[in-house]
Amino acid sequence: MKDTTSNPQDFYITQGQISDPAGFAPELDPLPNDLPSLVRSIQGLMLHLHWASRYGIKLNRIREEEANLRTTHARLAKILELTAEPLSNPRVLSKKTVGTCRDFALTLTSILRHRGIPARARAGFGTYFLAGSFEDHWVCEYWLAKENRWVIVDPQLDDLQIEALKIEFDPLDIPGTKFVTGPQAWLKCRARTVDPQRFGIFKMRGLDFVKGNLIRDFLALNKIEILPWDNFMLINTPFRRMKAEEKSLMNRLAKITTGADRDFVLLRAAFATNQDALLPDYFR
After folding, report:
1. Using CA atoms, how far apart are residues 38 and 43, in angstroms rounded to an integer?
2. Residue 23: how many CB atoms within 10 A of its CB?
3. How far apart are CA 213 and CA 207, in angstroms?
4. What does pLDDT average to over the chain?
5. pLDDT at residue 181, as a whole number
6. What is the Cα gyration radius of the chain?
7. In sequence order, which residues have a C-beta less than 8 Å from that of residue 40 and are 6 or more positions away?
8. Contact assessment for residue 143 and residue 117, using Cβ atoms and an 8 Å cutoff
9. Predicted TM-score of the model (pTM)
């Protein structure tokens, strides 16, 4: 572990290998300082892969491939390749980079860290996309020091989506009941309080999908924000074929991957012990 601090705010104030804008860091400086304007600026640069048609945009395969951009550095490079203007200038729809909810969350996380604000991406499920369903989703959390709490932000929700989804809460301060993290979902399903088939996206649903977001959230809290479709050992093993020790590991990780400051040291220790089993080959 390169980050040895036991203070979560100190840990999340610095970039990880994926969120690091590297040489593009100066390009972030002209962006607005206040959160509402900053989120609007991100929305002015990025188009969601699965919402494109709602904006009247038809994507070809080359543009769809932009959703595979793994790092903030690569994402910023693409944005500036499409239009070499300051990031504070909103792009026309055809010149926005294409990504997913993970990319909106990661971009905001990176910018906040760049500005010295503790932030992290979270993987889980939104309750506000489809009635009665927990839909696969990523959000950003940042530390609001004056209130001594982590605040959930959904930087994907622009005016069109807010109206289409009939959102009645503040996307810049989402109530905890509206977003269920992967670990929370796992514990709910294992306790049989919620049907696992209610969790997922499209036709991909069930406990195996929940397990994937449990691991993704665990890694994100360790500043490794993998792609939603990255494969690795335990995700590829169906629950019915998992060994008892693997199920026990998932249960233990779910209990400590809370994001609460009190569990931070346990989270980092678990990462040090289990990273070989959980990390995709790309990160080894």
Report:
1. 9
2. 10
3. 10
4. 95
5. 98
6. 18
7. 32, 158
8. yes
9. 0.95
Q: Work out whether the CA dihedral 146, 152, 154, 158 comes out positive or negative.
A: negative
Q: How do the domains of the chain map onto residue ranges? A: 8-283
**CB burial of residue 83 (10 Å; 0-12, 13-18, 19+):** middle
> How far is residue 183's CA from residue 107's CA, in Å, rounded to a whole number?
23
The CA distance from 252 to 187, in Å, is: 10
Distance linking the first and last C-alpha atoms of the chain? 13
* Length reported for the chain: 284
Question: Could you tell me if 223 and 120 are in contact, meaning their C-beta atoms sit under 8 angstroms apart?
Answer: yes
Cα–Cα distance for residue pair 135/164, rounded to 1 Å: 16
Instruction: Look up residue 242 and give its amino acid.
Output: M
Nearest to 219 by CA among 180, 151, 270: 270
CB-count burial class (<10 Å; 0-12, 13-18, 19+) for 226:
buried
Our measurement of the distance from residue 261's CA atom to the centroid of its chain's CA atoms, rounded to an integer in Å, reads: 19
> Which position has the higher pLDDT, 203 or 162?
162
Total Cβ atoms within 10 A of residue 195: 13
Q: Find all residues with CB under 8 Å of 77, minimum gap 6, and list them.
A: 24
Q: Give the other-Cβ count within 10 Å of 55's Cβ.
A: 13
**At residue 21, what is the residue type?**
P
139 close to 179: Cβ distance less than 8 angstroms: yes
Mean pLDDT of 43-65: 96
What are the CA-CA distances from residue 152 to residues 51, 139, 176, 181, 186 (Å)?
22, 7, 8, 11, 20
pLDDT in tens, 103-138: 999 999 999 999 999 999 999 999 999 999 999 999
